[in-house]
Amino acid sequence: MSKQAKNNVIDKYKEIIRSVGLKDETHTVEHLLTAYPLGDKQDQLVSQKAEELVTAIRDEPQNRSQLEDFMQRYSLSTDEGIALMALAESLLRIPDDETANKLIEDKITGAQWHDETDSAEKWLTHLSAWGLLISDKILSSSHSAFTKAFKRLGEPVIREAMVYSMRLMGRHFVTGRTIKEALGTAASAVKKNNRLRYSFDMLGEGARSWAMADRYLQDYHDAIDAIGQSASGDDINQRHSISVKLSAIHPRYSTRQRQRCLPELIERMTALAEKAKSYDIALTIDAEEAGRLLLSLEIFEGVRQQPSLKGWHGLGLALQAYSKRCLSVLDYLIDLAQTTEHRIAVRLVKGAYWDSEIKHAQVNGFDGYPVYTRKINTDLSYLVAAEKMLSNAQHLFPQFATHNAHSLVAVGVLAKEKNVSSDDYEFQRLHGMGEQLYTAAVEMIDEMESSACRVYAPVGQHQDLLPYLVRRLLENGANTSFVNQIHDPSIEPKDLVTSPKTIVSGLQSLPHPYILLPKDIYHNRLNSSGRDLEDQIILENMVNSYRAAKDKKYKISSIINSKVSDINSKNEEKAVLNPVDQGIIGHYIVASQSDVDEAYTHALQAQKLWCQASFHERADVVNCWGDKLEEHFDELVGLLALEAGKSYDDGIAEVREAIDFCRYYALQAQAELSGHKLMVGPTGEKNSLHYEPQGVFVCISPWNFPLAIFLGQIAAALVTGNAVLAKPAEQTPIIAHKATELFYEVKGSVPGIFNLLLGEGDIGAALVSHDKCDGVVFTGSTETAQLIHKSLARKDGAIVPLIAETGGQNAMIVDSSALLEQVVDDVMNSAFYTAGQRCSALRVLYLQDDIADKLIELLQGAMDCHYQGDISDPAYDIGPVIDTEAATMLHKH
């Protein structure tokens, strides 16, 4: 095999996988319908067998797991289920009694914990219901001194009962606290059922520091030694195996850190794989968030092609069926298996990050979702992928992870149809879930009588369980979950096992009608579009935009009456510096007093014409200004990086905020301010409210948000009928100049209604003190705001309004119920991104003593693996402060 061939497989599929992910859900699901592998008769047969399976399971409630009883009773469609998830997520990490008591009281009181309990219910559910009910009664009662005393005395008892219950819940998902304990649990289970194998997952993910990543890595090495030394079975696929999360063994596993993390993760994973090979046990790389998919495939291929692993067929990958890219990734894996002449194990799962993928896409304004918005579309995708895997069983070792009766039976039928031996594929389930389903399936379904089942078995202490536990609770507590529905007597068995093709074919809308595209989530206005920087092409576009901005030599001047002032005038010229290296990126012409007078003259004339337009007409102009910004999105991000030293993340957020300002203020003006509104008043009186513009507003904005705050002030003033004279910060005039040019490209903009004056503080002072100034909007320091206030107070005539947003001290208060890893993420983002130069940046962190040492250690570790430098390189997280004056002031402070 040539070296070129070895390195080419992922390159052939990158754009295919990427483009599929960007396609709309309707297109993707229509393709799945045409590829559905079961004919009508087969489909009916599968549904019939699955219905018999469900009925048999319901007829033997005594065989249900305690946890399944518990999840069915307290599903996430109930307030009680949500309260329990909050307790499970946080209670066991709270070291102090006082905070634990308050959390329990907050979550328990007021919920409906008890109804008529069936005597046949499992003791866990039965006792939990009564325990929660009694806790609620004690905690919510305050009728007498006796009750209050009992409440105080009862708190330790309640707390210990709740802690015990939460530990019990956690243990149902965990095979053991140590790998030795987990192997013992597995050995006992295998004695009862020799078709069982285990894939151990050492709990821990999302390392925030190298210390965490190294600890998790050592856990994996130790686990492989323990599993390997106890291995039995002639074939690698008959032995216990291990699953690894890439986010656990590297603190910066992301596309932006690709140059660093790709070789480092390949090296770390290769060492683990070599150890697994030495014992001839399998190793599977777990699937995580969609944004990391292509990076994970590059890492997987880099490990698979290591010469030291030649001849070992134990490297596998988890694949999420809820991903629109699922089938394209399968094509890649088949090609890679053929190219490397290795059989690749593929664990097909439905997917466990659905809620966070949806929220992430909405918050970041992506074009669409990487996952299907309907659960049934995922079920359809699962079976299409299953057929492809079974059709390529000579290249792949198919592993089918599901708790769904229809999916389970369908896979068995497909395997038999394609003559795939039961030794050449396996089923998988989660530890603590689905045991009754698999036991019944093997006994009842002919196609599955000799099928093996691998149990996905988490191992670790509770503090490392929490992210996994919450995913399991969300996944299995949702009212669309098969695990939740299978024991719900209100759902007929036949309705649980209807073919996904039948259901999807009958839908009027293939995407979920209530899960709107990210751009539409606000209903009455467009959400600004964002950029996914985990997409390598988009990231490269950002870098190219920066380079294009840097290649230009800017020379700008004020814009008065929609025209650029003479750049060859005799006015003073000032340099604009790149904060990274203090290099000159351009020059601007400083406005003069005569420029200020001229701007006021044109603004007054323009304002008379502008205020004759309706709120709707002005709103259309401002709204279209937002559209213009969106058309020039990448260019504006490049300018923000160049002129303000903003990272691409921060630049994207700022451009989006500027666009949202335009659309939000336009909507508010149309909905709230236009027309006359009759007010409630005494009989015989008629009072109405209407809004009129103030006149000419001066808008003075800072350098830390040179586009968003600059534009937000102006958009609000313009849409309400005012004329604007704007002075941006002297450090960032170029981005303001570009935004002003874009305003005058909008049809309906009136020349002179918005004027840009460039200069330092003296120009701002001249604008504010001018006798034609009717109002000031200012964002900046408290000291400057006080000077503006004094200047306005000295003026004769009517009081001139001042709207000032000034600095403050922003604090975060963290108690012991907080997830410390999330705290670290939020502190890093708020305190250090944009070099801490945001008015909302975190200044003071208050920590509860019980968690302070641990959190400080985590925070120091996170700071050590965040990088400061030339922000045009995505590998750097934190750029420079704006200029040498700011740096000097910080050092002095």
Number of strands: 22
SS-based class: alpha/beta
Query: How many angstroms does the end-to-end distance come to?
Result: 62 Å
**Gyration radius, to the nearest Å?**
32 Å
pLDDT < 50 stretches: 1-6, 116-127, 142-147
What is the number of helices?
A: 34
Sheet having the most strands? 8 strands, parallel, barrel
- The helix content, as a percent range, equals 40-55%
Which strand order do you get reading across the main beta sheet? 1-2-3-4-5-6-7-8
In percent terms, what proportion of residues is strand? Answer: 5-15%
Mean pLDDT comes to: 88
Shape: elongated
Entry summary:
Helices cover 52% and strands 12% of the residues. It has 34 helices and 22 strands.
What are the SSEs and their pairings?
Layout: H1 3-6, H2 9-22, H3 25-35, H4 40-58, H5 66-73, H6 79-90, H7 97-108, H8 123-140, H9 145-173, H10 179-192, E1 196-202, H11 210-229, E2 241-244, H12 258-279, E3 283-285, H13 293-304, E4 315-320, H14 326-340, E5 344-349, H15 354-363, H16 375-391, E6 396-401, H17 405-417, E7 426-430, H18 435-444, E8 453-459, H19 462-477, H20 482-485, H21 493-496, H22 500-505, H23 536-551, E9 554-556, E10 559-560, E11 563-564, E12 573-577, E13 584-589, H24 593-610, H25 615-631, H26 633-644, H27 648-673, E14 677-679, E15 687-689, E16 696-700, H28 708-719, E17 723-727, H29 733-743, E18 754-756, H30 761-769, E19 775-780, H31 782-793, E20 802-806, E21 810-814, H32 820-832, E22 842-847, H33 849-864, H34 884-892
Parallel strand pairs: 1-2, 1-8, 2-3, 3-4, 4-5, 5-6, 6-7, 7-8, 9-13, 16-17, 16-19, 17-18, 19-20, 21-22
Antiparallel strand pairs: 10-11, 12-13, 14-15
